[in-house]
Write a structure and sequence with these properties.
Elements (H helix, E strand, L loop, with lengths): L4 E2 L2 E2 L14 H13 L27 H11 L2 H5 L9 H71 L3
């Protein structure tokens, strides 16, 4: 698996939240258990707070939510602790704000997906209808060509046998 480099820190999918999201309760519980068992042992030393800006490292705040969340989660891991990586730098309110942003975008994308699915289904129905008509025209044309060939054969017979009388 190709692991991206962001600000010199290797991101790894070792923490469960960094994968495909699901709403299945058992999967969520399993992911949370993995998350807590992989939390760095010195997490409290990061001195993170819910809302205080005092002495908080702001160096990651400018990053996109995608990159910011990946780095913050990676920095929470025991693997980051073992490799001497820095502490996470988030506040609880900051996580909530970014989560709200993602939920708004997700809602918009779900709405757009539904609209596009509807448009695709409508076009598919239209295409199926046109395909049915196309097949009917081809069948009718094939039959008509057979009838035309028969009439031409009859015309030849009529000219050959009936015109001499």
């Amino acid at each position: 698996m190709d692991v991206p480099q962001i600000l010199g820190e290797q991101l790894s999918p070792n923490l469960p939240s960094m994968g495909v999201s699901t709403t299945d309760p058992l999967t969520i519980v399993h992911r949370r258990l993995q998350l807590f068992s992989a939390l760095r042992p010195d997490f409290k030393e990061a001195k993170l707070t819910w809302a205080s800006m005092d002495t908080r490292d702001l160096s990651l705040d400018h990053l996109s939510t995608k990159n910011w969340s990946a780095i913050q989660l990676r920095r929470c891991s025991s693997q980051a602790y073992e490799s001497g990586k820095g502490f996470p730098t988030f506040m609880g309110t900051q996580v909530q704000d970014r989560l709200d942003e993602v939920e708004k975008i997700r809602h918009c994308l779900i709405t757009e997906r539904a609209e596009l699915r509807g448009a695709i289904l409508a076009k598919s129905a239209e295409v199926a209808e046109k395909q049915d008509r196309f097949d009917a025209v081809v069948a009718e044309l094939t039959l008509l060509l057979t009838v035309e060939d028969e009439l031409r054969d009859l015309d030849v017979i009529a000219h050959w046998k009936l015109c001499d009388q």
